[in-house]
Amino acid sequence: MNIPVAVSILLGSSIASYVAIKGYLGFALKKQILDIPNERSSHTYPTPRGAGVAFATVFLLVIAVLGFMRILVAQELIALLAGAFVAAVGYCDDRRGMPIRTRLSVHVGSSIVVILSLAAFHIPGLASSSFVVIAVLMVVEIFALTWLLNLTNFMDGIDGIVGIEVVTVTTICVTLILVERGATVPALLFALLGITVAPFLFFNWSPARIFMGDVGSCFIGFTLGVISLIAAARQELSILVPLILLAVFISDATITLMTRMLTGQRWYEPHKTHGFQILASKYGHKRVAASIGIVNLVWLTPLAAAAQFDQAHAVFYGVTAFAPLLLICRYLGVGVIRSVAHTAHPTLDLSPSHSTAVTHNWLEAHAVPLLHRFFPSLQLVLMAFLSLACVAIALLSHQNISLTNESKTILVQAVLLWSVCQCLVLACLGLHRRHWRFFSVEEFPALVGISLLGSLVGAVCAEIFSRMHGIDLPRPVYLLEATLSIVAFAGLRISVGRLSYLQESMQRKNTRTPVIICSADLSGISMLSEIRLHCPEYHPVGFVDERPEIRGLSICGLRVLGKPEDLKRLLKKHSVQHVFVSEAMQLNSLTETIRRDCRDSNADLHMVSSFAITSFGT
Fold this sequence. Notes:
Elements: H1 3-31, E1 34-35, E2 47-48, H2 52-68, H3 74-81, H4 83-96, H5 100-119, H6 131-154, H7 161-180, H8 185-197, H9 200-204, H10 213-233, H11 240-245, H12 247-262, H13 275-283, H14 285-309, H15 314-332, H16 362-396, H17 405-428, H18 444-468, H19 476-507, E3 513-518, H20 522-534, E4 538-544, E5 554-555, E6 558-562, H21 567-573, E7 578-582, H22 590-600, E8 604-608, H23 610-617
Parallel strand pairs: 3-4, 3-7, 4-6, 7-8
Antiparallel strand pairs: 1-2, 5-6
Helix pairs in contact: 1-2, 1-8, 2-3, 2-4, 2-8, 2-10, 3-5, 4-5, 4-10, 5-6, 6-10, 6-12, 7-8, 7-14, 8-10, 12-15, 13-14, 14-15, 16-17, 16-19, 17-18, 18-19, 20-23
């Protein structure tokens, strides 16, 4: 590779990225593309977001130029340009919000494009592998790439954290490739990603002036995964090297998500239980982000280098890198909901309305107690069916077992005996009588131990029975059945816990009170932010604003429903009980109209002090 050309491309990309981000900052302020603080946020004031579209555009344009210069082959070019779909759906989500199914579909589809593109090109030994092996590897890679881009998005919760992560990871990868292979295409790609994201740190370092948004974080995670696959396919960088360097992100995001799922929380909703969020609340954004960079350089870099130059023991270095980070996550209690004492905001009089008495219907009075009483027996029956299914699947999936007419009866009897013995062990140890409405992390070791013991007893009985009739069961069947049993029993308990949670959610009344905010300017946005941040019992349904040109637009996720003259109709249509107006509008002639409409509709009018808006806006 021509070194002067590569250096010129990198310098030009860095300058273009800085100019694009600075230009987007003015655009976001003008169009009010703001991130309003919510229960997940670690910031306090509305901040422009979506700057990732700037450096993503620069990166993709440079990639197109590299493809035109024939530096990249067609398959690699397609894989990298698939990031445009991830960036596009992320930007749409930043602007107006998108359903999670749509976003996930685009993420999975883009990952499939990448894997299929690279699978058709220079992956060693792929042609000689069986169809099953190829299919399993491709599914694992698609899942891993999808998870990497989403976990990067999850970890983008404090100022500078993703920027410092991608800069350190790409710098270390470039250094390792240069030392062993010299100036190659993967080294250029890693350097290009790092150099286009680096200028963003000037705007995002605490206190941040702008956020990258989903468009930036998802694009970074996706592109980093694609470049790692390209480097591994070219045999220039072990795939474990970027995994080790991303150990902080992978450990925090994965353990947090697993904990929230196992404890029956709504894992897909915003939260503040990540390890970096817990630390940032104590030590601040700067210290946490800088500490992650130091961990990458001091702890993970030597292990990544060892995995690159001593690939025979790369797995050992990977385990060594992850082990202390997983213990730290466990010590911090990531994913666990902490009770927080909420205090009323001093500038808004938002006292919640009196709750009404909840009447118990027949389901709550009769069906639920019966379910509590007889569910252990029902759960034991479900476990018996799952045990039988696991044993049958384990036997049928092994190709060495031939189900002839002579052996069918014996194998069926062996399967039944295996399942019965396993269920007897589960019943004796009381697995079916444990608390069934949720599944906690503390219960998981007990469930694994009981499941393994049941599988062992059932396997011994089935082995003795089958040998008495002259049939030998293959040894891999035992391991497969034990694994399936653990997954099935854990899935049963999680599913039942989720059903119970959904039942309680359906029975719980919706107590959020609808409100309308007058004026969609900075004062209205500030009131919206304070309501979302401090008053979860209120549900903003929209703005009213006297400017006809913005009617129907969505501002910070809330639509402009109409003009102040339409307030009386909107109050009746949406059953609004509270209206919020800035004190700065007292001299406005429309204020009396708003007062009269609120009085006629029996709605409370709240005059919010200008002090709150002024301090919030600055």
